[in-house]
């Protein structure tokens, strides 16, 4: 393969990774952030991009350095922790929450706006939509070696063209002036936006998608670990650049839309009304295409990653059987509706997200402490006692005394009180490592 062909293939891998990351949530949250941030849009977008782009890119690199396998990465703490935590992450961004959400969002934003009022309240349109959606997801994920061709070379360019149409039109004919900051974005724009980046779930997804990339590279004959890491990092940079473009474009649409469409607390409503304002009825059609394509590519990547992982853990069940199981399960869950899915998933995400971030960051610098399990272990224990309570609190159960204790830590008001305990735990674990070796 000549350099030109090699570069073109790597670009395709980067496009695939970008498309796998770009789900409906990534399209819905930036316009809402834009409306709420107002004149503080710049600092807000920086906070959002750190957690919505920067951390996922670090996640891709961390997993690539460990052979594209989250279980190997988590197994540095303890083999049992590796299996249990990896399974929780895969199921969370797989058939339990994220995959069903792709089907539910495709219907809510891509299909429902075109239905009559009577049909919107019926279960039949959602049922039919999710059957077609997950049937196509199953077909695209059936042969994982062809995901790069199907997603990176076909779906992603179409997705980018549609988003570019919205972005360019909003710049040429802006809907209005930049509005004023609202709520917590007035005094805490950066911190609030930083937390909002969690909702993309892309840090968890970055730990999952590594196995899809490595599998695709192996199918292309790239088996050397150094080459896999190099290509994966290159693909991650392309995906990160694409996500930044999308977030800035959609954030700009949101921040200039308030005078034309008013304030709304739902990002889907904002982008839907903005698309209609920019392109008329054709805007709704364009938006529907964006949402369905974004959901489809993410669903394909998550489904393939889950089937690959669990086939490795329980090899007696084939990859294709896992696809069937997860597709049927996701289809059933998605028919409960989007609101219930988000309500159930949020406490779980709040609990496991900090653990995933700390594991990922410490792994990137693992050579400094020889990947000592004590450093990982103590840091994650200290993180976990804060993060698990945050998840319980998000579910509506609060322990006042413990909450008062956590309030003494920095960043408590920003919702990331786990940062300092994680660092303290890492230092204690490092001291234990030094003492043991002396």
From TrEMBL:
This is Branched-chain amino acid transport system carrier protein. Its main location: membrane. It comes from Solibacillus palustris. Coiled coil: none annotated. Component of the transport system for branched-chain amino acids. The chain crosses the membrane at residues 12-29, 41-65, 77-99, 123-142, 154-175, 195-219, 231-253, 285-309, 321-338, 344-368, 375-392, 415-435. It is found in: Cell membrane. It is a multi-pass membrane protein. InterPro entries: Brnchd-chn_aa_trnsp_Livcs (IPR004685). Keywords: Amino-acid transport, Cell membrane, Membrane, Transmembrane, Transmembrane helix, Transport. Belongs to the branched chain amino acid transporter family. The keyword Transport applies. It comes from the Bacteria.
